[in-house]
Amino acid sequence: MTRQIKIATLTVGGRAPVRVESMLKERLSGEREDMEKCRAQCERLLAEGCELARLAFPSPDLEKPLEWLLQHTRLPIMADIHFDPDLALAAMRAGCASIRINPGNMPLHKLTTLIDTAKDKGVVIRIGANGGSLSGRHREQSKGDSGVALFLAVKEQADLLLQRGFCDIILSAKSSSVPDTIRANGLLASAYPDLPTHIGITEAGPGDGGIVKGVSGIAALLSQGIGNTLRVSLTDEPEREVRVGYAILRALELRQRGPNLISCPTCGRRRADVRELVKLVEPLISGLPDGTTVAVMGCEVNGPKEAANAQYGIAGTPVGAVLFKNGTMVGNYSFDSLPSALPEFFSSRGDIGG
Ligand code: SF4
Q1: What is the pLDDT of residues 78-110, one digit of tens each?
Q2: Which residues of the chain have pLDDT under 70?
């Protein structure tokens, strides 16, 4: 188990649950409209369960806008710093409780003031290496193994911080290659077993392909016990990144947020149009307690048993569907009567007769 660190009140590592992160895609600027857009995106992310959001911080002119944002959202923010350690100092002056630095573009000899200031202010530093910004030196040292190069990039700065007595560190090594990312994180976990890690696959892409890449890498690492915070990087809305992040944790039974919807893939035996049933059910179950299992099954082969094992179950029958609650059959319904019966079924009472 890693040590636990705190970003303001957010615990990371140790016995804390795996945290779900995203990154603001709105651009922070001194314009009120942009600041409001960032604040609104923070609120939407919070509503999805996002626990930490990175924010691009490319200019010292953003110190005041960042200060404003931090005062107007409860979402913990991590300032994303590249090239210039003075930007990290500006973000810390604004009150930011965590910063990310990129070892590929941050000169080592300029880090000392940044480290000492972070220590004074209790700011967490994430050392986040990306496959796309590795230095030629680390590539050479790794003899062309990009996973090893990522590891070496993070190691160099982690060692510097640790030597200066700074331990509030999160390690992160990401690439758009799943195998490289897994290799780099395995090396980091062996070298620094007590430091928390942030995991993800960077530049994973859009749509199904992006989700599959992110899920493949993140799930493989979590299954090895590696990863204390995660981000599913997608060319999509950040809220979707958070939803997919929770879906991974739910699938691995590491964390529950929202209901667990089970539905069969359907086949020629189906008695009900499961896709239509899912469309009816999904809007009705978002308010159910975290981890509530809802099963929507197409026929009597697996349906009744699977549905009966769920807190709420629906299985197709020759004339409609049978509803179960906590293993007890509630009743048989015709397809036409389901739209009016289901809201009451999923309501807090939920014990309607058949
Ligand atoms: S539950 Fe029935 S309809 Fe669904 S996949 Fe299994 S056999 Fe097919």
Answers
A1: 999 998 999 999 999 999 999 999 887 887 788
A2: 348-354
DSSP structure class, residue 62 = G
Spatial CA neighbour of 131 closest among 123, 142, 122: 142
Distance 162 CA to ligand 1 centre (A): 56
- CA dist 243 → 22, 94, 259, 274 (Å): 10, 30, 12, 22
Question: What is the pTM (predicted TM-score) of this model?
Answer: 0.90
Mutate to test the pocket of ligand 1, among 302, 317, 322 (most ligand atoms within 8 A of CB): 302
Q: Ligand 1 centre from 350 Cα, in Å?
A: 25
Which CATH architecture best describes the domain 260-347?
2-Layer Sandwich (3.30)
Atom of ligand 1 nearest to the CA of 303: 1
Residue 185 to residue 172: CA distance in whole angstroms:
8
Ligand 1 pocket list (CB less than 6 A): 264-267, 269-270, 297-299, 301-303
Q: Tell me the CA–centroid distance for residue 268 and ligand 1, in Å.
A: 8
- How many whole angstroms from 266 Cα to the centroid of ligand 1? 5
| 3.60.140.10, 3.40.50.2300, 3.40.50.620, 3.20.20.20: CATH of 5-251 | 3.20.20.20
